[in-house]
Write a structure and sequence with these properties.
By secondary structure, this protein is of the alpha+beta class. Helix content is 31%, strand content 22%.
């Protein structure tokens, strides 16, 4: 039985005083966030809170279980009716968890790279991009503008061997 959207709305409302509560559907179930930190999972209509020392101290009843087969053990929160208790528990857990690491933006086609394209003539991607911006609109014109491919020792000079 998967978790219903209605249960997530209910749980989010119960936790609203703990911080900024959001959730995201993942693989048919939900990840639950407090202030941008993943604090737990909701699977099969059950709330699994990440284990922290602060959370353990506040739990009325410690019940540990994995959210799914192969998952790390979490605190299984068996009752979600006491808003004040849940707020304290989630606040304490959230305060102990680190913020997620900022993802590095992937750069597609970084034409400002200083990496050599032609090792023999020491021609970089940046030099080729500049030649194209300056009107070199064919391989022959790029070669003429950059001096690429003047030697035939690429396999020897290129550390990648290509």
């Amino acid at each position: 039985m998967s978790t219903s959207e209605e249960f997530m709305v209910y749980l989010s409302d119960q936790l609203r005083d703990a911080g900024i509560i959001t959730y995201r559907k993942m693989f048919g179930e939900y990840a639950l966030y407090c202030d941008s930190k993943v604090i737990g999972l909701v699977c099969d209509g059950q709330f699994f809170l990440k284990k922290t020392d602060a959370g353990r101290k506040l739990l009325k009843e410690v019940c540990e279980a994995p959210a799914y087969n192969g998952a790390k053990s979490s605190f299984l929160i068996t009752s979600t009716d006491d808003r004040e208790y849940l707020t304290k528990l989630v606040r304490a857990t959230c305060s102990e968890l680190p913020y997620p690491k900022q993802k590095k933006k992937k750069v597609k086609n970084n034409c400002d790279s200083e990496e050599y394209v032609c090792y023999c003539s020491k021609v970089t991607e940046k030099m080729i991009a500049e030649a194209v911006r300056n009107g070199a609109n064919s391989p022959e014109k790029v070669i003429a503008a950059t001096g690429a491919m003047k030697n035939s020792n690429c396999e020897v000079n290129n550390p990648k061997g290509t």
